[in-house]
Protein: Xyloglucan endotransglucosylase/hydrolase
Amino acid sequence: MASILFHIIFFCLILRTTTASGSSFNQNYEPYFGLDHFKLIQGGQDEAQLTLDQNGGAGFRSKAEYQSGRFHIRMKIPRQKTRGIIPNFYLISREESGIHTELDFEFLGTTGDLQTNMFANDLGGREQHFHLWFDPSEDFHSYSILWNQHQVVFLVDNIPITVYKNNSAMGAKFPSEPLHIEATIWNGTWVGNVDWSVSPFTTSYRNFEITGCQADNANPEKCASPEFKWNAEDQWDLTPQQKQKLENIRKKYMYYDYCNQPNAKSKYPECAVSRS
Ligand SMILES: *[C@@H]1O[C@H](CO)[C@@H](O)[C@H](O)[C@H]1NC(C)=O
Ligand SMILES: *[C@@H]1O[C@H](CO)[C@@H](O)[C@H](O)[C@H]1NC(C)=O
Structure:
């Protein structure tokens, strides 16, 4: 009897610690537009849902600003097939900063096309397009952005798909200012026409823990510290295995690359050198 009771108490303790260590949505994030199109389902694992219909979309953002990290979310895009909508997850600078920096995961409609892009110091146009090897509307998958002083890496289910190295020595811009996380759903004709007959469209998000270094004006060097595991030397470059995977992804699943466009090499110095 005592042993059963012990096990029950022990089990409850384990449950408590697990819920306490998994961050809740409200701890790190807040909705910021389209509140009537935002829904939070709280439980052992919080889930936030953003819905788009003809009246508009919605978005949430992190409460804090960061200057390095390995940012991560699990997301499942709307299951109805349409073009013209952009479910997403990205890092962005504050408008008041006057500098436009952005690290983007953007779905181009819901048929499995994904765009990565980077704006650094107002210069964007670094798009790469992939047709994913799975249907992102069927299940949750993980989308991560590693950002340290040496590289920005976009990973899908921990497989690198896009790398921007810090080529500032060659004159290429690289993000340095504080960024926060945003996730939104909106529509735009640049990705085609929406089939509103199958709306509303809902993206679901899970996993609201943020593994990043919070920006600190009083200590601007803080986020470059090698004490953070995403800044450690083994994160300065992809491993040989990761490079192999990236090569494979580019060959098999990438169907548009800004570096292959006319004059790309003069506008983007990184297009002239190895990009992994
Ligand atoms: C990029 O690398 C240069 C060294 O080549 C370094 O001085 C700079 O701080 C790095 N930029 C960022 C934003 O980390
Ligand atoms: C999104 O769709 C709505 C409804 O059709 C339309 O009024 C709006 O202009 C669209 N927004 C953009 C950015 O295309």
In short: Residues 149, 166, 168-169, 174, 176 surround 2-acetamido-2-deoxy-beta-D-glucopyranose (ligand 1) (CB under 6 Å). Residues 8-21 have pLDDT under 50 and may be disordered. The two ends are 60 Å apart (CA to CA).
